[in-house]
Protein: BED-type domain-containing protein
Amino acid sequence: MGRTRLPDKAWNYCTMVDGKSCHVCCIFCGHTMWGGVSRLKEHLAQKRGDVAECKRCPANVTMEMQEHLIQVVEEMDEKEKALLDEAIKESLQTHKMEEMKEKNEEADLARACLESVQLYEQELLMRQNGSSSRYDYDETDFDIDMNF
Ligand SMILES: [Zn+2]
Structure:
């Protein structure tokens, strides 16, 4: 752990597995990973690569970890920096797309509800137009009676 400078905020977001600081468990999704908090940060920052992205951590934690990773990157050379930037941008996009997908699903549901309500209203309207009676069921019953 040569590069650890200060007590890491990332420790708030994980627990040690078997008391090993290099084997940690994400408190948001329960994913366990080797590599300690530096790996956890990549996990929380949704950085694609050696570790699975966290599906459960709040957006502000993701942002916090991404900012932290960017600070670490200040020490990297330009090429590494550019690569990481790309990865972060890409993962942010995926994150947004997933959020949008969720919103779309909600919208689909709302639309489906609206459609069924509209259909119902249309049907109601048609029945009302098709008969002078406000109680169209009565008329249907009457029709059936007439057939006897
Ligand atoms: Zn996680």
Notes: The pocket of zinc ion is lined by residues 26, 28-29, 31, 43, 54, 56-57 (CB under 6 Å). The two ends are 92 Å apart (CA to CA). The chain is about 60% helix and 10% strand. Residues 78-130 form the longest helix (53 residues).
